[in-house]
């Protein structure tokens, strides 16, 4: 197949982006880059899901209209992806007019064919889930997700005849072992289908909900949010007649997390079947990230902010960690300590050291010019490097095509470590000592830098920036970047005579609880008499970015008597950890106007990243916050 279409779930806009969203979207980006490297034409779709009760409720809490609220959260997702080096081809919103048009067309088509009917229904309805539950689905009479007793409501609604397609779907899934993967999720869907499949209520009366797409055949109702959302995968490519749809739909790969298996594994193929649209190619299901062994949730306060991690470790290291750590399909544990561990051992040590010591040697022994690789007869060691390079490329390719990301990286790291060993065994510094071994030294260094070219190429899908930096240092022309998989399989692409750049540190080592938590101290600053500080210029003072901020939320930090964790609006939302718990109760601070240093280097306190510092005065052990004598817009600069 020479085309590849990958989708992420469209993210529901009732919450800010977190680690799970970042993971699904990075997977799609890695695959998109990889398939492009393989010479395939690709299309990468992500976006936001914006209708339904939950958005109305979240918007009401913020005193906003649903659309204004959806604009804001959708904007956060859209702005986050480039920060993580994610390059999608299309960012769809379910409020886009083109999407709404497709939803109406598909509904009308299914309605006309007789698979949507009108009926009165009384049942247990969970407002959190926005759906009816059957007795069988409830746990001790409660919603399994919300642990609340659903309300019994009676309503006339439109229903989608899913039951009619139950046998067809079972046969379809069994006939194509790769349709839903990994296999455990295929089995989960099949297990669900062993019970009779109920018809799906696909409408909500406008008396109860207006924020949705009006049914084309009854304007007293809006469309159930799942029926609306799933259709994004075809509306984004211009279904029914768009070129992109015709080109890419036959090779679509959906990537989802396991919590939305049922809508994607059951509703979606049946909707497609009923509408006469070819069934999607693959559903790829991943597990959850648990943070410190607990499922990530807002109420537990352990939501990982992808952007904060990126600011500390860089997008590449973050992407590497997620791809290397999780076995696709299973749950994984996320901890910053584990990230730092991998960063230091895999990136700073194995990869970073290999790169910098190799370039240093080429500069020391050959003035930075790539030597001739055929200057001396090959040894068995040299031949092993070449065959290992090819084997690595094959394993890497197989693993990525099969969604086994950690194995692709394991194969690559095995090669990296083989090159490290090759350097230790061939000892170029010894060869350099004797003029008679000059030719052999050339061959050894050529093999090392040519291997680095291949390593840089294979890193590209997961770590695009690192791959680019390595490529630049190895003299790869920018129009040859990214290298194709074919370029990588041809040994000898790096031309002897190429001038290499001076070496660089790809990943400076990090120390948890090290530099970031130490109090910043200005070099050479000497205290004046009486505790006063030395004189500074106005320019120096102006380098401090002081801003007005409004406290949105405050809470105490577990296991700390002094620290409070604050969310402030300083023109943008920030987290600040302040040592004021002995003078202020969290609830006294909400709504208060304070002054912060906005450009202070972020620091970690009790594991929380603080991005800014509040100005305070300490007098006889009592802390006073600096404030203004009248209201000012959050984010206003102090001069
Ligand atoms: Zn519920």
Report a brief summary of the structure.
With 639 residues, this protein is an alpha/beta fold.
User: What is the 3D shape?
Assistant: flat
First-to-last CA distance: 61 Å
Radius of gyration: 29 Å
Mean pLDDT, to the nearest integer, reads 91
Strand content: 15-25%
Structural class: alpha/beta
The major sheet is characterized as: 7 strands, parallel
How many strand units? 26
Total of DSSP H or I helical runs spanning 4+ residues:
21
Give a description of the structure.
- Helix 17 (438-459) runs antiparallel to helix 18 (464-473).
- This protein has 639 residues and is of the alpha/beta class.
- A hairpin with a 2-residue loop joins strand 25 and strand 26.
- It has 21 helices and 26 strands.
- Strands 1, 2, 3, 4, 8, 13 and 14 form a seven-stranded parallel beta sheet that branches. Strands 20-19-18-21-24 form a five-stranded antiparallel beta sheet.
- The protein is 40% helix and 19% strand.
- Bound molecules: zinc ion.
- The site of zinc ion has 6 residues, from loops.
């Amino acid at each position: 197949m020479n085309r590849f279409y990958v989708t992420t779930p469209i993210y529901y806009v009732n919450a800010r982006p977190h680690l799970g969203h970042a993971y699904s979207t990075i997977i799609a980006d890695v695959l998109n880059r990889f398939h492009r490297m393989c010479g395939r034409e690709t299309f990468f779709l992500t976006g936001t899901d914006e209708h339904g009760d939950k958005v109305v409720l979240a918007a009401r809490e913020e005193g906003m209209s649903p659309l204004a609220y959806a604009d804001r959260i959708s904007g956060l997702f859209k702005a986050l992806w480039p920060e993580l080096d994610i390059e999608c081809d299309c960012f769809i919103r379910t409020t886009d007019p083109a999407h709404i048009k497709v939803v109406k067309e598909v509904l009308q088509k299914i309605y006309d064919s007789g698979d949507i009917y009108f009926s009165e229904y009384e049942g247990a309805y969970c407002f959190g889930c926005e759906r009816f539950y059957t007795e069988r689905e409830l746990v001790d009479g409660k919603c399994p997700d919300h642990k609340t007793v659903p309300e019994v409501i009676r309503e006339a609604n439109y229903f989608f005849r899913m039951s009619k397609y139950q046998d067809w779907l079972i046969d379809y899934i069994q006939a194509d072992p790769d349709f839903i993967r990994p296999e455990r999720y295929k089995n989960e869907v099949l297990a669900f289908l062993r019970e009779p499949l109920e018809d799906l209520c696909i409408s909500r009366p406008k008396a109860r909900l207006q924020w949705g797409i009006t049914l084309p055949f009854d304007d007293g109702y809006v469309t159930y949010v799942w029926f609306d959302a799933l259709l994004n995968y075809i509306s984004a490519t211009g279904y029914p007649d768009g070129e992109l749809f015709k080109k890419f739909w036959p090779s679509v790969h959906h990537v989802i997390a396991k919590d939305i298996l049922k809508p994607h594994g059951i509703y979606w193929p049946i909707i497609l079947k009923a509408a006469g649209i070819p069934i999607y190619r693959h559903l790829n299901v991943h597990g959850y990230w648990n943070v410190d062994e607990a499922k990530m949730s807002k109420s537990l306060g352990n939501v990982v902010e992808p952007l904060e991690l990126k600011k500390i470790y860089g997008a590449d290291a973050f992407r590497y960690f997620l791809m290397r750590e999780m076995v696709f399909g299973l749950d994984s544990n996320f901890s910053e300590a584990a990230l730092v561990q991998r960063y230091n051992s895999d990136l700073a040590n194995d990869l970073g050291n290999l790169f910098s010591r190799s370039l240093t040697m080429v500069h020391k022994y050959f003035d930075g010019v790539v030597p001739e690789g055929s200057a001396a007869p090959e040894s068995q060691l040299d031949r092993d490097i070449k065959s290992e390079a090819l084997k690595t490329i094959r394993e890497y390719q197989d693993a990525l095509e099969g969604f086994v990301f950690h194995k692709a990286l394991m194969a690559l790291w095995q090669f990296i470590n083989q090159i490290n060993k090759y350097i230790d065994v061939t000892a170029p510094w010894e060869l350099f000592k004797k003029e008679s071994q000059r030719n052999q030294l050339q061959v050894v260094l050529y093999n090392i830098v040519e291997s680095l070219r291949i390593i840089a190429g294979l890193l590209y899908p997961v770590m695009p920036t690192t791959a680019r930096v390595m490529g630049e240092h190895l003299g790869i022309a920018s129009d040859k970047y990214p290298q194709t998989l074919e370029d990588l399989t041809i040994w000898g692409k790096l031309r002897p005579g190429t001038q290499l750049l001076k070496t660089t540190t790809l990943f400076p080592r990090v120390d948890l609880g090290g530099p970031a938590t130490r109090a910043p101290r200005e070099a050479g600053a000497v205290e004046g008499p009486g505790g006063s500080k030395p004189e500074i210029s106005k320019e120096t003072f102006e380098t401090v970015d002081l801003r007005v901020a409004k406290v949105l939320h405050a809470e105490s930090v577990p296991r700390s008597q002094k620290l409070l964790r604050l969310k402030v609006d300083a023109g943008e939302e920030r987290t600040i950890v302040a040592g004021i718990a002995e003078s202020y109760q969290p609830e006294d601070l909400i709504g208060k106007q304070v002054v912060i240093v906005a450009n202070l280097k972020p620091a970690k306190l009790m594991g929380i990243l603080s991005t800014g510092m509040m100005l305070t005065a300490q007098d006889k052990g009592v802390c006073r916050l600096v404030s203004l004598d009248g209201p000012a817009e959050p984010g206003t600069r102090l001069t």
